[in-house]
Amino acid sequence: MENRRKPAPPAATLDINCDCKEAIVDYLTRAFPTRQMEEYVDELGDVRSRPMWDQAGNPVHNPQAEAAREQLIEHICAMPPIPTALDALLEHYGVSAVAEVTGRSKRLVRDGSGQQRLESRSPRTNLAETTAFMTGAKRILVFSDAGGTGRSYHASLDAKNQQRRVHFLLEPGWRADRAIQGLGRTHRTHQACPPLFRPVTTDCKGEARFTSTIARRLDALGALTRGQRQTGGQGMFDAADNLESAYAKHALHDWYGLLATGKLKSTSLKEFQAMSGLELTDQDGVLREDLPPIQRWLNRILAMKIAVQNAIFDEFLTLVETRVSAAKEAGTFDIGVETVAAETCEVLSDTVIRTDPVTGATSHLLELSLTQRRKLLALERVLKMASYENKPLFLRNAKSGKVALAIPAPSHMDEEGELIRRFELVRPLRSEYILAGRLDETAWEPVAQTKFSALWEAEYAADENQLVTETVFLATGLLLPIWGALPKEDLTVNRIVDKSGASWLGRHVHDLYVDATLEKLGVSRKAQTDPAKIAQAILGGGTWKAPHPLNFTVRTSRVNGARRIEIVGAEAARIPELKAMGCFTEIIAYKTRVFVPTDKAEAILQAMTGPGTTPD
Which residues are in the Strawberry notch helicase C domain (predicted)? Predict the structure, then answer.
């Protein structure tokens, strides 16, 4: 007889879901509150609750709570599986388009028919996947800590794929050094173009807590390893992203004050204390002096509902943005070391301002002539910015004929808890902020997009390839002994680098403060009396001390949202003299304030620095 064998049964179809349902169901089974509670009166007469037991000593469970638990478990198990980010990318784009460089030895993939299959991976697989991405065979790369060690994914000039990388930072983790290592894989020397870094978060504002942590650690790591904080974060994070900075701590105190006075719309004092478990007031209903620190406040916010989180964070981040913007406008915002790229840099003068008596080390004040190429914003980029807005405002100034794109800027919050809406006016050469309520009062008027594009291109072509030369002063050398003598109005530390590779590192000293700084250090220098330069410096945010016998200060102030040139500290007897020069006065909050018309600033300053007011 012919020996016939039965065919093997078909292999079972794989149906594996790598989600977290099992852990959630186990947690609900163990932790869902189903115990029946009973009330009792303690020895002090207070009504309390405790778990109920039957006569046999067995715990009593509430049938309605048990039914609710079973219904919730049933609903969760019926929901579609939520894959991990890595598996979701592979399933969406396909394994033929995504190069995976991770430490996984096995993975689940779907074939052309949509069926799952288990795929084994060896160490050589990562090498093949890296080669596929660098040659352009696969356009998407996903790598982890395990897959990023010892490999480079930048747009190398030696690789076939030299397209610009867009690096999405999905899970930065808690270790800043590993985040830096991962970011460095796509940004290295000998590359065709630098990458774009894109941190990824959800719309849950509580996730800003974790973004803040990695931002703070990246800043600290950059300050320790390279001497400049923005190097650590690769420029991805703004000062408002660090929720544990000094600005955020001051903003939290403002938030506590607005909450206590009932001026917040997100929640009330009673509701917040009940939701967070934080006691903010004493027995008299007054805010406590030892209010919870920002770390504890942030952690308690994470336990609230998503809608409440978002509302509270919107108000808090608005206060942080208000603090940061105020510091930037006042010139007291510390941004660390700022690199200034220049076409050419020439040293006009080198003044030794101090020599250390022990080591002989010297401190210098360099006068540098910088020639820079104007940085213009192309029309393509500004139109792309406009595409992100629902109703972009294309504007044209009726007086100057210049154009600007108005986009919503982060709002500010006043002392009464009211939001102050702002717009950012994006122009080819610069950006500026304006209050939404004052936009209609200016000369900016709406214009059609076609007209806007034509005017933008004309302004771009007129300013393209133009070089601008300016003179800057830089304190270099041994700075620690003279740090206190340098002006506190400007804390900028610059690293100036020209095309030849020469660089100068030091503390920037504004023109207006050079004479006062040298006077503190006992070094003489001819005073600057050019009214045009003084007016330009004041409008740029500086201050000017008028010479004897005037002895007042001229600076910029913000009145009703507009910037003005104000004379501070003028004697009442000199007000008629100043008005005769062309100044004008206003009584604000029962105080007479003296202002200089912007269009007459040079002439008025010329009169102030005339022969009758020359310093002794």
Answer: 85-339
Together in a domain, 92 and 180: yes
Contact 216, 179 (CB under 8 A): no
- Residues 314-325 have a mean pLDDT of 84
Helix (H) or strand (E) holding 474: strand 467-477
Would you state the pLDDT for residue 228? 45
Cα separation of 542 and 511, whole Å?
9
Q: Give the Cα-Cα-Cα angle 312, 317, 321 (nearest 5 degrees).
A: 155
Q: Pick the last residue of a domain from 464, 485, 512.
A: 464
Whether 220 is covered by a domain: the verdict is no
**AA identity, residue 585:** T
Domain that holds residue 52: 20-78
**What would the 3-class secondary structure string for 545-602 be?**
ECCCCCCCEEEEEEECCEEEEEEECCCHHHHHHHHHHCCEEEEECCEEEEEECHHHHH
DSSP 213-227: HHHHHHHHHHHHHTS
pLDDT category at 124 given cuts 50, 70, 90 is confident
Task: Looking at the structure, tell me whether residues 174 and 89 fall in a common domain.
Answer: yes
Helix 306-330 with 246-260: angle, nearest 10 deg: 120
**In 110-227, where does DSSP find H-type helix?**
123-134, 145-148, 176-184, 208-225
217 domain residue, yes or no? no
Q: How far apart are CA 302 and CA 537, in angstroms?
A: 46
Task: Specify the range with the lowest mean pLDDT, choosing from 9-18, 386-395, 485-494, 512-521.
Answer: 9-18
Q: Which residue has the tokens 């109703």?
A: 391
DSSP bridge partners of 37: 51
| Domain total of the chain | 5
Residue 148 has pLDDT above 90, yes or no: no
pLDDT at 202: 79
**4 within some domain:** no
pLDDT at 7 over 80: no
| Structure-token pair, residue 245 | 């900075």
Does the residue 498 lie in any domain? no
33 and 102 co-located in one domain: no
Tell which wins on pLDDT, 143 or 234.
Answer: 143
Query: Are 578 and 555 in a shared domain?
Result: yes
Token duo for residue 479:
């700075």
The helix (run of H) or strand (run of E) holding residue 232 is helix 229-232
pLDDT digits (tens, 9 = 90+) for 386-414: 887 777 789 998 888 888 998 888 788 87
User: How far is residue 159's CA from residue 134's CA, in Å, rounded to a whole number?
Assistant: 6
What 401-405 contacts at long range (C-beta under 8 Å, 24+ apart), as own/partner pairs, is: 401/455, 402/427, 402/455, 402/459, 403/427, 403/447, 403/452, 403/455, 403/456, 403/459, 404/444, 405/452
**Neighbouring C-beta atoms of residue 474, cutoff 10 Å:** 21
Phi, psi for 372 (deg, rounded to 5): -120, 150
Per-residue DSSP letters for 75-112? HHHHSPP---HHHHHHHHH-TTTEEEESS-SEEEEE-T
Are 115 and 152 in the same domain? Answer: yes
Cα dihedral 170, 173, 175, 177 in deg (nearest 10) = -10
Q: Is the distance from CB of 102 to CB of 142 less than 8 angstroms?
A: yes
Same domain membership, residue 384 and residue 309: no
Q: What would the pLDDT profile of 527-580 be if each residue is shown by its tens digit?
A: 445 677 677 767 666 667 676 567 788 888 877 767 788 888 888 888 898 898
Measured between alpha carbons, how far is 320 from 25 in angstroms, rounded to an integer? 40
pLDDT at residue 109, rounded to an integer? 79
CA-wise closest residue to 543 among 529, 557, 530, 532: 557
Helices (H), 485-565: 514-520, 531-539
